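Lecture 7, part 2: worked example. A protein chain together with pyridoxal-5'-phosphate.
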Amino acid sequence: MRPIQARISIGAMAHNLRVARSHSGAARVFAVVKANAYGHGLSRARRAFAAADGFAVLTLEEAANLRLMGVEQPIMLLEGIFGADEIATCAELDLSPVLHHAGQLDWLERQPPARPIRVFLKFDTGMHRLGFPLAEHAGIVARVRGLSGIAGITLMTHFAQADEATGVAWQLQPFLRELASHGLPWSSANSAALLRYPETQGAWTRPGIMLYGASPYADVSAAELGLRPAMSLQSEIISVQTLQAGEGVGYGQLYRAERAMRVGVVACGYADGYPRHALTGTPVLVNGRRSQTLGRVSMDMLCVDLSEHPDAEAGSSVELWGDNLPVDAVAAAAGTNSYELLCALAARVPVEEAE
Ligand SMILES: *Cc1c(COP(=O)(O)O)cnc(C)c1O
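Predicted complex, written out as structure tokens:
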């Protein structure tokens, strides 16, 4: 069998949920499990986050799967409904859609849900992606209050720079000021906001990335935040090559040896979810010790530097990211973030579950 494997720790995910809760004050916690729980598997997320107050997903299919698995907590649809035909399922499965554009209100007006549903009413406070303009709040809130089949309204917004020095105040202050008169519960915090800004807690927090043990910030590690990595991507060296000075390795021969050296070929490529744009120098562990990738990542393989690893041979263990090599460090070296790496774990990689 090809030696690549992902190990996913249910215990680490449960631990990270407790960290999220400890930063959420009196707010209830929606575990964000979109994108197959950031690559960790929806069913695993349901078990690991059984203590969450709710789950947030993107699609009706994910929501239906959670209900099939026995989830009884509220389920939030992060982008709401994509057509009037989805209203019936929201009522049937008791799902809470985000309402962020007028078309969705039109659909609900014409086809009120058969059973009352709770909704999240999203306002744009500067992200300029989804949400009603804050300036139109009076009319929008009044309109949603007038719809039949609505059991409760929670106001919502999303931060664009909670992970940066700029922070959240420029969005949070107008949101709270403008909407205060409605006296409704509200939700604003993603991981970056809830870890740094307790004032963003509101009624519901919405942590995602931190639950999987990665840091939302470029300048603070997951370990410093008390988080435990949930996914570890492991493989082995399947071939060892010796390069002479001037010889190159891999497609495009992007890396060339300056002197004679040994190169390990690892069973892991971009079809497994490893980023192809990771250049020479991306960190990797060989037999638990730091090394680096060399040249271009191929579909099924990548090459690593064995200059400082005389003991390494075919069969030696390789950690691409995980307990001993933060996914954030790999992401930073590859010019992306941990979200993209975790979500990209390919279906062909076998997963072993760990406690
Ligand atoms: C994905 C998402 C989150 C979670 O964000 P993280 O940065 O992963 O914590 C929260 N809120 C909304 C609206 C989202 O789409």
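The chain has two domains: 25-206, 231-354. The chain has a mean pLDDT of 97. Keep this in mind for problem set question 3.
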